[in-house]
Design a protein that fits this description.
40% helix; single chain; Helix Hairpins; five-stranded mixed beta sheet; 158 residues; Chitinase A, domain 3; 2 domains
Length: 158
Amino acid sequence: MATIPITKRGAAKLKAELHKLKTVDRPWVINAIAEARAQGDLSENAEYEVAKDRQGFIEGRIQEVEGKLSVCQIIDPAELDADGRVVFGATVKLEDEASGDLMTYQIVGEDEADIKLGLVNIGSPIARALIGRLEGDSVEVRAPGGVKTYEVVQVSYV
């Protein structure tokens, strides 16, 4: 299986989710199943069915998170030395050449992407267009909304 790039913050977030799933969610659902079983006839017990479905989801998510953590490559943006190039983990300040609007994005892994927080997925059109660029470069981004042109104003590794 290929390695998955992830920032230190993203790895910590996945580890925290895994800890919660194992120490809070799993014991809760086991207790819910036990309580539902105590009510008697399981064939007509909706609480039992819901708890079993929830258990399946939790166990599946535990396996998924453990799998991701086992193959992830943790990258600390503060330790990067990419000579000013845009790479995974870099924070990039852009100027929309049409409107003059400024925006800042950090290029992160799939699991930690959140556009509202300025965290863009490495596989997104804007991130793919930015990779390898330097400050002052003009970048054309082909997105579902059409083609936009940006200027790379600043590249930092925070």
